[in-house]
Every structure is written in structure tokens, then in C-alpha cells.
Amino acid sequence: MKQISFAQAEHQNKKKVTRRERFLAQMEALVPWQRLIDALSPSYFPNAAGKRGRPPIGLERMLRIYFLQQWYALADEALEDAIYDSQAMRDFVGIDLAIESVPDATTLLRFRHLLEKHALTQRIFEEINAHLAEKGLFMREGTIVADVTMVRHLVREDGKRIDGDTGCFGMGKYLVEEKQSSETRCFAPVRRSAIKKMEDSWKKTLMLAFEKTKTNIYAKVEHPFHVIKNLFGYRKVCYKGLTKKNQAQLFSLFALANLVLAGRCQKHVHGGSVS
Which Pfam families match (predicted)? Predict the structure, then answer.
């Protein structure tokens, strides 16, 4: 058994368990670590053995640090400082400051570039979704975690059918043009202000019922976006105009969001509270 430091012993004896500790403990149990390591190992410095110089940091440790960055929306330097400051983060990563230091920001930057170069974040996304599907926690005809693989198709325009929110991608103009074109059909929710202006009649009642059905369907897609925007703090792209970097990060964020939703469903099934 590994001997703990005085700082770790003091931290373990505190009475309160923080929200960060609860969240990281939940992710520790939900993330399929060995599956991810097996999938990414062939692309993680496969020829490093026997070479001179400093050996690469273990893949699992770098994955843990990378996931912390996505969960808490931290820059490379800020993440390095946060790990030094937080005992909960150090325990999650497996770092004991008495014998080792935290990987610096440059190391994390190079790891992210490696993930982008070999499209490994997409592999992470696929492996996590496959793991959840095997556990029965992935949306397949009525199960419980949302599949956000086809995010780019949530709002689309093919000349005949338009899906999305009335506030996105100029949807408002299509609502107007729909009255003039018999070919284009708009499947965006109608604004409530437009419904309120209608006279009380069977048409308004039917419209309200129809819109309620549509919004119930759209609401199910909003759950992973709520996790990413409000819990992970990802509200705007960090690298404007750099599609490859943004796409790589989004694969990671949606994979981790699926894990959060799976954890909530498990709490609900076992009678726990859902935060």
C-alpha cells in the first residue's frame, strides 16, 4: 500500500465532501479508463521505448488531466495552477507533490496537438459511446442518454426542409418565406409572441398542442448542450476559425457530457438525487 503524505492525510480527515470531490469520484467510476488506454495507446509515442531523453508521461495520467481541462474550462496554464492548488484534482490525477510535480502547460499543449493530429478525440467519443451502449445507458430507441453524434444536422437547410431554433441561422426569414413557398417546410418552433397574437379559436388551440409536441422533442436534445454550456462552461469556441481544433474539442465535450447524463440516470434509478 502506498504511503500517503501529510497533506493527503489532512485532506482525507476533513468532514465535508465537496461537490468537486463528488463529481470526480463519479467520473472516476464512469470513465472506461482501460478501454480508452487500449484504444489510444497505438498513437501515443509508440516508438518511445529505448530512445534517449525524458520518457513520455503515462497516457492515463494525461487523459485525466485533459478531462479536467474540459470539465472545468481551464487554459493550459490555469489548469496547471489548479492542480497545484486542489488536492481533489491531484488525487484524481494521481499526483503526490512530495515526490513529483504537475506536468507543465507545454506538456498538455503537446498532448492536445497529438489528439488533434491523430483524430483521437473522435476515437474517445466512439469508445465512450460504445461503452455506454454496452451498459444500456445510451439512447437507442427509447433508452436514456442522448446521442449527439450528428450535431451538425440539428440545423440544416436542403431547400425542402429546415430544422432548428427560430433564433439560429436566420430561421426567422424562413418562417416568413414559408408562407410564400409551397415547397419549403419549416420545422422550427413558432415564437410564443406569434401565437399570442392569434385570435382565440380552434386554430390557436391546435397550434398550441402542436408546438408543445415539437418542443418536447427538441427539449430532449438540449440536455447535452446544457451540460456543456452550463456545467463545463463551454459557451463559445476558443479558436475562432480553426475548425479542426474546435471539432476535436467538441468530440471530447460531448463524450464527457454523455458520461454526466449516464451518471444522472444511474442516480435516478438508484434513488439518489439528481443535481
Answer: DUF772
